[in-house]
């Protein structure tokens, strides 16, 4: 199973819109990459994102795929994800950034994020992250990661 | 791309965030000749960072084309210094890690990213500036 992480701006999508977009992203993953995927969501509060030094309205998608995916298939997937995101969010395609990364590089990002947490806080961090995911799944119907702790 | 993800021990005030984002953008562009439009900076607050750290940044950067491992390390060091200066911190209170990503794995601005320094990148830049 692959993983997709979508980072969007608070208020850019309603909760039911997130659920619809999640279904669409999972469908794209299945169609383009032949597997199921789980989707995690980061909702950025205003003032926490910049592009070219100015407040940003970009939406970011990081997609994990198996190592060694051939270029043509990766490029098709990039276009399919970007088109789906732009259409579902009703934004221009140049306002989305999509990365389709091999599992090993995706793992390097996750490793770097985990590494930044103080070792003795990692059990607490993991437990509260899992609890937060379960709560958001029950309350909102999707897996929301906490942007601010 | 690049996408710079900053975890902060405590929330920064809006002016400080903007100053750091500008410092990152200017440093990235000066070191790589990339256009500023490609530089994205995200903040995440309240992280229990390793002892002594106030800001920990993980950046995803293109690592092919005219970029060498030495050039990416120079970028990392320059970003480290720039963030510390803009944040008013000691360099020991800031950590920067970069993860290299091939250009063809990224779609931004409506097109798959070309390798840095390539003719394709120059064409895209020229089109964007029109």
Global geometry of chain A:
globular
- Radius of gyration of chain A using CA atoms only: 15 Å
How many separate structural domains of chain A? 1
What is the level-2 CATH architecture name of chain A?
A: 2-Layer Sandwich
Main sheet makeup of chain A: 5 strands, mixed
CA-to-CA gap between the ends of chain B?
21 Å
Structural features:
heterodimer; A: 149 residues; alpha/beta; Macrophage Migration Inhibitory Factor; 5-stranded mixed β-sheet; two-stranded antiparallel ribbon; 4 helices; 7 strands; B: 130 residues; 4-stranded mixed β-sheet; 25% strand; elongated
Give a concise summary:
The complex is a heterodimer of chains A (149) and B (130). With 149 residues, chain A is α/β, with parallel strands linked by helices.
Structural description of this entry:
- The complex is a heterodimer of chains A (149) and B (130).
- With 149 residues, chain A is α/β, with parallel strands linked by helices.
- Chain A has one domain: Macrophage Migration Inhibitory Factor (2-Layer Sandwich), CATH 3.30.429.10.
- Chain A has helices spanning 15-33, 71-89, 103-115, 122-140; strands at 2-9, 37-44, 49-51, 54-55, 59-65, 96-102, 143-145.
- In chain A, strands 6-5-1-2-7 form a five-stranded mixed β-sheet.
- In chain A, helix 2 (71-89) links the parallel strand 5 (59-65) and strand 6 (96-102).
- In chain A, helix 1 (15-33) runs antiparallel to helix 2.
- Chain B has 130 residues and is of the alpha/beta class.
- Chain B has one domain (3-129): Macrophage Migration Inhibitory Factor, CATH 3.30.429.
- In chain B, the strands form two sheets. A four-stranded mixed β-sheet of chain B has the order 2-1-3-4, covered by helices on one side.
- The model of chain B has no long low-confidence stretch (mean pLDDT 94).
- Chain A binds chain B through residues 7, 44, 47-53, 56, 58, 60, 71, 74-75, 78-79, 81-82, 92-94, 96-102, 105, 108-109, 112-113, 115-119, 121, 124-125, 147-149, and chain B through 1, 3, 5, 7, 11, 14, 17-18, 21-22, 25-26, 36-51, 53, 56, 58, 60, 95, 97, 99, 101, 104-110, 112.
């Amino acid at each position: 199973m692959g993983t997709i992480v979508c980072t969007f701006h608070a208020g850019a999508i309603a909760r039911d819109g997130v659920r619809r977009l999640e279904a669409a992203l999972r469908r794209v993953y299945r169609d383009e990459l032949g597997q199921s995927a789980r989707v995690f969501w980061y909702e950025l509060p205003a003032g926490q994102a910049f592009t070219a030094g100015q407040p940003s309205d970009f939406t970011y998608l990081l997609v994990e795929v198996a190592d060694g995916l051939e270029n043509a298939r990766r490029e098709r997937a990039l276009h399919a994800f970007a088109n789906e995101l732009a259409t579902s969010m009703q934004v221009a395609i140049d306002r989305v950034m999509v990365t389709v990364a091999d599992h090993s590089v995706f793992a390097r990002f996750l490793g770097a994020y985990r590494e930044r947490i103080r070792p003795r806080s990692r059990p607490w961090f993991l437990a509260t992250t899992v609890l937060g995911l379960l709560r958001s799944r029950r309350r909102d119907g999707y897996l929301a990661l906490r942007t601010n702790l | 791309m690049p996408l710079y993800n900053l975890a902060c021990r405590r929330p920064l005030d809006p002016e400080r965030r903007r100053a750091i984002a500008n410092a990152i953008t200017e440093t990235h562009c000066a070191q790589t000749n990339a256009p500023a439009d490609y530089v994205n900076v995200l903040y995440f607050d309240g992280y229990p960072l390793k002892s002594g750290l106030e800001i920990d940044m993980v950046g995803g950067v293109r690592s092919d084309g005219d970029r060498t491992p030495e050039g990416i390390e120079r970028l990392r060091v320059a970003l480290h210094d720039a963030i510390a200066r803009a944040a008013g911190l000691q360099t020991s209170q800031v950590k920067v890690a970069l993860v290299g990503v091939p250009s063809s794995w990224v779609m931004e601005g409506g097109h798959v990213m070309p390798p840095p320094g390539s003719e394709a990148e120059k064409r895209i830049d020229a089109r964007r500036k029109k």
